[in-house]
């Protein structure tokens, strides 16, 4: 299963459109996980034309969108427990704050908020922040996560 993982798209408040590389990655994916700060629902509708979307609310989302999206998700994909939340507060301690939202550590934790790429293995847990699609050129990023039952997850950083 190929999953496009993105966060902090901030449309249209910080940019007028998603970078083209986002659409290429999503079109080749089975699922999209958006870790919050879509800002407007149009982002989700746009991505859903290419693949199913699972999204959580972020701190900058339109209030109407925040009401419709969950603050966190727990998904089972290819036998992996994948937990998703946006995050809040300063960058130091962000991973642990997000992790505290879930009763037990997942196999894979996905979060956003910091706009910074982060990939870490902590024990048996994979921790992924795909960065932001709207940051300054050279810092924009997303991830492709490949899951196959019985195999280690594979993460690819896509620079936008």
* Overall SS class: alpha/beta
According to CATH, what is the class? Alpha Beta
Largest beta-sheet details? 5 strands, mixed
Domain unit count: 1
The CATH homologous superfamily is called Metallo-dependent phosphatases
Shape: globular
Spatial arrangement of strands, main beta sheet: 3-2-1-9-10
**Count of separate DSSP helical elements:** 4
CATH fold naming: Purple Acid Phosphatase, chain A, domain 2
What's the gyration radius in Å? 14 Å
SSE string, helices as H and strands as E: EHEHEHEEHEEEEE
> In the CATH classification, which architecture applies?
4-Layer Sandwich
Unreliable sequence segments: none
Structure summary, number of beta strands: 10
Which percent range describes the beta-strand content?
A: 25-35%
Overall mean pLDDT score? 95
Question: How would you describe the overall organization of this protein?
Answer:
The protein has 160 residues and is α/β, with parallel strands linked by helices. The chain has one domain (2-159): Purple Acid Phosphatase, chain A, domain 2, CATH 3.60.21.10. 18% of the residues lie in helices and 32% in strands. The chain contains four helices and ten strands, in the order βαβαβαββαβββββ. The strands form two sheets. It has a five-stranded mixed β-sheet with strand order 3-2-1-9-10, with helices on one face. A five-stranded mixed β-sheet has the order 4-5-6-8-7. Strand 7 and strand 8 (125-130) form a beta hairpin. The longest helix has 8 residues, at 20-27. The two termini are 22 Å apart. The mean pLDDT is 95.
């Amino acid at each position: 299963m190929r999953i496009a993982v993105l966060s902090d798209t901030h449309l249209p408040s910080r940019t007028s459109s998603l970078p083209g590389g986002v659409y290429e990655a999503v079109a080749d994916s089975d699922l999209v996980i958006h870790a919050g700060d879509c800002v407007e629902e149009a982002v989700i509708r746009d991505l859903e034309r290419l693949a199913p979307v699972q999204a959580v609310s972020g701190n900058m989302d339109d209030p109407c969108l925040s009401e419709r999206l969950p603050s966190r998700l727990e998904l089972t994909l290819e036998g992996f427990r994948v937990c998703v939340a946006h995050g809040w507060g300063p960058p130091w301690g962000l991973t642990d704050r997000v992790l505290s939202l879930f009763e037990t550590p997942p196999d894979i934790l996905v979060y956003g908020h910091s706009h910074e790429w982060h990939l870490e293995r902590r024990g048996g847990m994979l921790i992924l922040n795909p960065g932001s699609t709207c940051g300054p050129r050279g810092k924009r990023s997303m991830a492709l996560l490949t899951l196959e039952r019985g195999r280690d997850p594979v993460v690819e950083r896509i620079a936008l």
